[in-house]
Amino acid sequence: MLTEVNVPLLDLKAQYVGEMREQIRAAIDEVCDAQWFVMGPNVSDLEAEIAAYTGAKHAIGCASGSDALLLALMGLDIGCNGGENGRVICPSYTFFATGGSTARLGAVPVYVDIDPVTYNMDPEKVREVAKRTPNLAAIMPVHLFGQCVDMDAYRAIADEFGVPLIEDAAQAIGSKDHKGRMAGTVGDIGCFSFFPSKNLGGFGDGGIITTNDDALAEKLAVLRIHGGKPKYYHSMIGVNSRLDALQAAVLRVKLRYLEGWHAGRIANADFYDDAFLEAGAATTATPLGEPADLALRIPERPAAPARHIYNQYVIRVPAEHRDALREHMSTAKIGTEIYYPVPLHMQECFAYLGQPEGDLPESEAAARETIALPIYAELAVEQKRHVVDTVVGYLRRHATKAKAAAGTR
Ligand SMILES: Cc1ncc(COP(=O)(O)O)c(C=O)c1O
């Protein structure tokens, strides 16, 4: 009798085993014994270790990746300052916090379309939009799914328009750009999330901000504690965005394993790439409408020294098959997710921006055609095989039928 293969989208229990599990429990015990729960030595040690890992001069812990973005904007005085609503260029095809942080501060997100090969915001389109955007205050690219944007292109645009560059690196700790530079080190500020599903995930919410600017680092460190320095004396209005010592203690242990997990995810991506290409898929460099043996597009791999860390492995299929394929995978006990079903410019809360449906066609198409597959480091070969066989089997049956039907029309 065949045993059923289950493949959850993410299985954190598979990671929490062996030596690491013991080390984490010991680290938590130490925090409990010390009874020092907020900020403190674990947080400052984590900050030093993340700075060393990324190569940034400073790292400032905070309560979440969303807060990292909010603090970054506050640190750069972006918002509704004296009635001037600063505008921040960012992608629409991303997690809500990218645009939400800007709007929350009274600034105005300006959504720009993506490059369909990388799913990252297209720098050429950013330049065009920047030229016609009054009160441009910042540019905020996202290293989506763990793949760096072209940092040189973005640095050049930010410098050309004299605005700061904020990297939303929430999904990209350890990701490298085409020159081998770590995410979060080329922009003025880098923002990271330690949400549990990230490659470096805590046991709850957490985030960190990187910068090479001494004065900005000092300001951000004060802004996260209500802007008080010395304590109870406030020259600035900040927020409560302290990082918990328990989170920092867990993250410090997990950081030691991060490179191994990246390697595991990259090896899984290699497996998927090879198997899907062999089955007739093409990479995103071939648009879905162009002929290939299978109506499936896999991520185009960036050339070394760039490094995609595959926080997500996202495939693309014709919109008419996407939801049914997902349903079929769910029946086959495979977890998937849609990142993201509604681009930000089409969210109800952003209707006031006046960027209607049709404005950003690549973002809208990606929202209809993409599916994220399980990619976590501990996946077994039979699990990956099951994913590939299920996707390919479904598309062969259904995309072939669609082709045949089109031929008889
Ligand atoms: C691109 C992006 N930006 C920001 C965030 C916000 O991070 P957090 O969930 O830690 O607040 C996330 C988290 O999913 C994200 O993926």
Question: What would you note in describing this structure?
Answer:
- The protein folds into two domains: 12-255, Type I PLP-dependent aspartate aminotransferase-like (Major domain) (Aspartate Aminotransferase, domain 2, 3-Layer(aba) Sandwich), CATH 3.40.640; 258-408, Aspartate Aminotransferase, domain 1 (Alpha-Beta Complex).
- The protein starts with 11 loop residues before the first helix and ends with a helix.
- The protein contains 13 helices and 13 strands.
- The protein has 409 residues and is of the alpha/beta class.
- The longest helix has 28 residues, at 381-408.
- A hairpin with a 2-residue loop joins β2 (80-81) and β3 (84-85).
- It is globular, with a radius of gyration of 22 Å.
- It has a four-stranded mixed beta sheet. A three-stranded parallel beta sheet has the order 5-4-6, with helices on both faces.
- Bound molecules: pyridoxal-5'-phosphate (PLP).
- Residues 64-66, 94-95, 97-98, 142, 168, 170-171, 193, 195, 205, 207 line the site of pyridoxal-5'-phosphate.
Q: Which labels suit this protein?
A:
single chain, 409 residues, alpha/beta, Aspartate Aminotransferase, domain 2, Aspartate Aminotransferase, domain 1, 2 domains, 4-stranded mixed sheet, 3-stranded parallel sheet, 13 helices, 13 strands, 41% helix, globular, binds pyridoxal-5'-phosphate
